[in-house]
C-alpha cells in the first residue's frame, strides 16, 4: 500500500535516509526552527528523530484526554464523524517557529486542526511536512497560506 510507512520503519537504513531527507529539506528551507510538532500518532515516529537531528525540542499534538496539565483543544471534522486534538497550553511561546510533521496528508482535517492549535498559542507555523500526500483528496488546499511539503505524492 502506497500510504503505509511500516516498511520504512522496519528498515533502519531506509528510516535513516528518510530522516536525512527531511533534515536536509528543513535546514535548506528555514534558518531557525524552535520546535517540531508531531501529530498523534505517526508524527511521533518521525518528529522526535528529526527534532533531535536539528537540536531542537519536540511537541506532541494528541487526541483529546491524553496530555497532562492545562491544554488547548480544537474539534475538527473527519470523514466518519468528528475528533478533537490537544496541545499543552505552555508548549510554545508567542512567536516561536514550529514545523508540524505527520506521516500522511489525506483530507487535511487533522493538519488544519494542528495549525489552529498552534495559532491559538501564537506560534508561527513555518511548514506542514509529511512523507506521503494523497493528492486526490486535496488536503493541501485546506491549509491555505500555510506552507506545505511532502516527499511523495500519489494521485
Automatic annotation (TrEMBL):
Keyword Cytoplasm assigned: yes
One Pfam family, short name: Pribosyltran
Domain Phosphoribosyltransferase: 8-133
Superkingdom classification of source: Eukaryota
Secreted recorded as keyword: no
Pathway it works in: Purine metabolism; AMP biosynthesis via salvage pathway; AMP from adenine: step 1/1
Leader peptide range in chain numbering: none
Gene Ontology molecular function: any one: adenine binding
EC number: 2.4.2.7
Gene Ontology terms describing biological process: adenine salvage; AMP salvage; purine ribonucleoside salvage
Keywords: Acetylation, Cytoplasm, Glycosyltransferase, Phosphoprotein, Purine salvage, Transferase
HAMAP family: Aden_phosphoribosyltr
Subunit structure: Homodimer.
Protein's recorded name: Adenine phosphoribosyltransferase
Organism per entry: Colius striatus
Amino acid at each position: 500500500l502506497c500510504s503505509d510507512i511500516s516498511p520504512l520503519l522496519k528498515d533502519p537504513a531506509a528510516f535513516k535516509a528518510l530522516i536525512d531527507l527531511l533534515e536536509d529539506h528543513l535546514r535548506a528551507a528555514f534558518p531557525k526552527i524552535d520546535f517540531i510538532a508531531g501529530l498523534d500518532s505517526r508524527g511521533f515516529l518521525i518528529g522526535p528523530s528529526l527534532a533531535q537531528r536539528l537540536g531542537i525540542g519536540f511537541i506532541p499534538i494528541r487526541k483529546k484526554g491524553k496530555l497532562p496539565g492545562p491544554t488547548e483543544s480544537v474539534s475538527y471534522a473527519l470523514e466518519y464523524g468528528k475528533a478533537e486534538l490537544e496541545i499543552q497550553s505552555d508548549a510554545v511561546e508567542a512567536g516561536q517557529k514550529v514545523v508540524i510533521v505527520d506521516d500522511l496528508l489525506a483530507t487535511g482535517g487533522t493538519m488544519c486542526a494542528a495549525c489552529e492549535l498552534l495559532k491559538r498559542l501564537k506560534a508561527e507555523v513555518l511548514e506542514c511536512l509529511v512523507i506521503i500526500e494523497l493528492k486526490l483528496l486535496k488536503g493541501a488546499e485546506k491549509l491555505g497560506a500555510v506552507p506545505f511539503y511532502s516527499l511523495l505524492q500519489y494521485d
